[in-house]
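Exercise: predict the structure of this protein bound to adenosine-5-diphosphoribose.
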Amino acid sequence: MTVFSGAGISAESGVPTFRDVETGLWAKVDPYEISSADGWRAHPDRVWAWYLWRHHMMSAVGPNNAHRAVAAWEDYADVHVVTQNVDNLHERAGSRRVYHVHGSLFDFHCDTCRSAYRGPVPDMPEPVESVDPPVCEACGGLIRPDVVWFGEALPDDAWERSVEAVAGADLVVVVGTSSVVYPAAGLPEMALANGTPVIEVNPEPTPLSSSATVTLREKASTALPGLLQRLPALLT
Ligand code: APR
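Solution:
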């Protein structure tokens, strides 16, 4: 089984999604300014402050029943998790094979020489407008999170493993993603083109809904815990 997850699976842990018009992260800031390579070059202090706050938020919450259900499926199946989320809630729930196609907010590297940064990261319980990023000891470059911004390529290793996981799956479960950001959103399409059933779990319709084999209009924490038992009925 391959699970493809997005911000919706972490919403019930208290991590806001991106595109909800009222509560989403993008309702508060300009996504391009705060999450693009250009935005970083123009205002690294603002971008760093924003990610410190998100880092705090993600550290302060825990996995929910949806993350735990995915981890528990490993008792019954060979499970690979492809996630667009930069939190570590799948790992903290116990999933062993997690591929972060949009990177991780729990690793950092130098923007110039790309060496890993293992120094301290300040706690930022409230959002602030500007914090200067740490400076690389080796080259003086700025330290940035290992997340993929608009305009950047996906990490090769995570992407290759994700494509393999989708190509080798007997079932793909797509949960909590608006299915609009490519190339990641192409993974379920790849599965469907191979004849692999795709189950979508999302309370709202998405561009994938009309082509998915099954769409469950349910929250992740409602649908995932009993999903394996429902499979025979859903897929016949
Ligand atoms: N259970 C399941 N799905 C949910 C839940 C829930 N409890 N709550 C919300 N959702 C759904 C929403 O209906 C929406 O379709 O989760 C989806 C979240 O969509 P986005 O906010 O667009 O998040 P995501 O699809 O992960 O975004 C993809 O875009 O902004 C970039 O790099 C960022 O990885 C992110 C990518």
